[in-house]
Automatic annotation (TrEMBL):
Catalytic activity: N(2)-acetyl-L-ornithine + 2-oxoglutarate = N-acetyl-L-glutamate 5-semialdehyde + L-glutamate
Quaternary structure and partners: Homodimer.
InterPro entries: Ac/SucOrn_transaminase_bac, AcOrn/SuccOrn_fam, Aminotrans_3, Aminotrans_3_PPA_site, Class-III_PLP-dep_AT, PyrdxlP-dep_Trfase, PyrdxlP-dep_Trfase_major, PyrdxlP-dep_Trfase_small
One Pfam family, short name: Aminotran_3
Keyword Nucleotide-binding belongs to the record: no
Record key words, sorted: Amino-acid biosynthesis, Aminotransferase, Arginine biosynthesis, Cytoplasm, Pyridoxal phosphate, Transferase
Protein's UniProt name: Acetylornithine aminotransferase
SUPFAM superfamilies per record: PLP-dependent transferases
Cofactor note: Binds 1 pyridoxal phosphate per subunit.
Amino acid sequence: MTQVQRSDFDRLMVPSYAPAEWVPVRGEGSRVWDQAGKEYIDFAGGIAVNGLGHAHPKLVAALTEQAGKLWHVSNSLTNEPALKLAAQLVESTFAERVFFTNSGAEANEAAFKLARRWAIDNYGADKVEIISFNNSFHGRTLFTVSVGGQAKYSDGFGPKPGGITHLEFNNLDALARQISDRTCAVVLEPIQGEGGVLPVDKAFLQGVRELCNKHNALLIFDEVQSGVGRSGSLYAYMEYGIEPDILSTAKALGGGFPIGAMLTTERIAKHFAVGVHGSTYGGNPLACAVAGAVLDIINTPETLNGVKAKHERFVKGLEAINARHGVFSLVRGMGLLIGAVLGNDFKDRAKDFMTVGARHGVMVLQAGPNVVRLAPSLIIPDADIDEGLARFERAIAEIVGK
């Protein structure tokens, strides 16, 4: 087959996605080109994955160099890129131990399994409850999708894993009533991504930490989407000054190359003894070499301060657009994870903003049916922000005019 087209997706692929009608073929920085040569400004970032844009030369160099050395060795051996990356993560976070995976779902799977193993080992077989929150998202495995607080993703697959409770996000009273000595862990996203780009309240987070301490439960932060510079700190928990016991990270960690990690402390990690958990590809040299280069660039004052400055530029631009067109009820988020909440006149139409935006040469996302989500490169040039917002405004004008 010399040429593929969008129609080949419908002919060849399992229909679990509904991709756009255009097919990207090349990216550079914050710009993408499709098969017809049309250019787009990327405010989507591969759903917060392409933290350094497309084809960043230092990532290309890291991948190319490692590709000429060692691709894979299995988990019966360790490798230099994995050890170097683990050292970077330990030196830069609360963590003392790292477990590498291939995705955010796998990182969360490991986190939930470790939390239960730790609780059972220390307190007995009844301490298994995991408390999560409505509208959360933690992955697509049967365990992680059940912990996630969105029934549309977990229903229809038969019996779900037990011992999981869902509560209202940012409601400390509800948590105080539910948590008990049977609770092994509370898991939350510091910024709910798929649930609508909703940051956690600091007072709520402090209360969660205190309740976990009181009931000997672990606090797990899912930073798959909010991590690796997205918030303006390396991880969003640093914005709040409240540390978790376990943290999951993925997406931007590899800058587009699949990798995830679970971070934790030594006292908890020891419950994953030899043979208790594993991953064939987790920690492979290619992914770890790229991720190490990602952290070298993102975990710097220049990049992280730039994220906060670019946040202000986006918010001011979106608010100016809204003053002219009146489509958003609220612009919220943190750093370069931004949600524009649609007003009542445009309820349930976030997908339209994606589709029409692409026609005007700008890529945006949705977070549920009522929130337009932006998760661009953390180093997107200001000129691309301004041009992308201008294109987005033209798309909005078309929607409003219909």
